Amino acid sequence: xxxxxxxxxxxxxxxxxxxxxxxxxxxxxxxxxxxxxxxxxxxxxxxxxxxxxxxxxxxxxxxxxxxxxxxxxxxxxxxxxxxxxxxxxxxxxxxxxxxxxxxxxxxxxxxxxxxxxxxxxxxxxxxxxxxxxxxxxxxxxxxxxxxxxxxxxxxxxxxxxxxxxxxxxxxxxxxxxxxxxxxxxxxxxxxxxxxxxxxxxxxxxxxxxxxxxxxxxxxxxxxxxxxxxxxxxxxxxxxxxxxxxxxxxxxxxxxxxxxxxxxxxxxxxxxxxxxxxxxxxxxxxxxxxxxxxxxxxxxxxxxxxxxxxxxxxxxxxxxxxxxxxxxxxxxxxxxxxxxxxxxxxxxxxxxxxxxxxxxxxxxxxxxxxxxxxxxxxxxxxxxxxxxxxxxxxxxxxxxxxxxxxxxxxxxxxxxxxxxxxxxxxxxxxxxxxxxxxxxxxxxxxxxxxxxxxxxxxxxxxxxxxxxxxxxxxxxxxxxxxxxxxxxxxxxxxxxxxxxxxxxxxxxxxxxxxxxxxxxxx
Length: 521
Fold this sequence. Notes:
Blueprint: H1 2-14, H2 19-27, H3 37-50, E1 55-65, E2 70-72, E3 75-78, E4 83-86, E5 93-97, E6 107-113, E7 130-135, E8 139-144, E9 150-155, E10 164-171, E11 175-180, H4 187-191, E12 198-206, E13 211-219, H5 220-223, E14 227-233, E15 236-241, E16 245-250, H6 251-258, E17 268-271, E18 274-277, E19 297-302, E20 308-311, E21 316-319, E22 329-334, E23 340-347, E24 357-360, E25 368-371, E26 375-384, E27 387-400, E28 411-413, E29 419-421, E30 435-442, E31 447-456, E32 459-468, E33 474-479, E34 489-495, E35 498-505, E36 509-519
Antiparallel strand pairs: 1-36, 2-3, 3-4, 4-5, 6-7, 7-8, 8-9, 10-11, 11-12, 12-13, 14-15, 15-16, 16-19, 17-18, 20-21, 21-22, 22-23, 24-25, 25-26, 26-27, 28-29, 30-31, 31-32, 32-33, 34-35, 35-36
Transmembrane segments: 198-218, 230-249
Protein name: DCA17 factor
Pfam families: DCAF17
């Protein structure tokens, strides 16, 4: 916002009234006082240094844990968020270490909250990063990200709901959703014929300052008996059904239409015969949004396993036809009229244990990334020639796994001249062949990162590659020192000059490997 303000001032000063000219001039560095210029230059320099041949990534720290390890913006969280370690320092160091918490205080989910730019906030602590956590006893806590101090606490569950379990963003860093586990009656109650109509509860909060918007229930009587899950994203309520159906509703309109009475945190209330304080124990939050009729439907689609994505420009969506035989086949269709784009059926025809996957590129370019065992396709939407109202899917670039040394002949000839025929062929993701496991995007450096793995015997080797996000060319490859077992669960984070690998082994054993950039002089 500060950068935009500087641009507007520069625009008025130089008399430029064309947005394209303004952006072009800014890209060439005309506005030296722009708040974002120095930051963009620094990131450009970091990218060049990082991709130099002499620059290495060194394993500076390794740790193991019996509890899950999480990473958020330069902070490593261990022991159920009781221990926080900064990964930014030359050697990772502990920011805070709390005493072991009781099972009743266990943290179920967490979100990192960062200060918005250009806004005046009520408390000095609001300008620093904080962690919003949800405990097993339905407490919503805001903790200082650097000290673990409790800054705010809200009790969620009154008489309506006992099991809030999930945190997510509706609008990132602005509107937060707290979702309950699915309500299920005990077996004895079901045998007695008691009906459970409320499936989920959703509590909605504005953040910084933390304020309560409302709570609503997802009811079978309104949305149907076969609802399996719900989610909220970018102002859209997404309802998923057991038969693969996905329905979209206007969430903001639902809040406005069915709000019975607004409440503020800390406000005394008398609600349905209960007297208490909003957000305080034992009353929690009132369910003040009652959906009494089915909201207007925005859109619906049927897709295998409820897989449904929206993106691109103009708006398109990706689904898999709702039959098991179509698993791995993706249809890209226009959101406006459901028309299938030209070349809109993407099928890699993989013969593999793990399926390929597809998603809209997170760089907001409208492109699509399709990842298979040995091939990554970056696709783009473009107008069909002489048909401006029709779109087609075209290949922007591809990244291919290095399988030069792989020979997979079904017929071989021995030294004596005997012909031997193999009774099986290798899978596309056979561990002995280099296979893509992770694809990610580093937005600040504009780099596409890939993790490719080859496993020979018990020893697996992985390398992290940086590719130009515009053209796909390989800029740098970083070998990971630790062995990589393809049967374990892995996460790899690439965050500017830091690479972090989290591995989950059997029996809940976790390992964390931290790599930092080292410039070889």
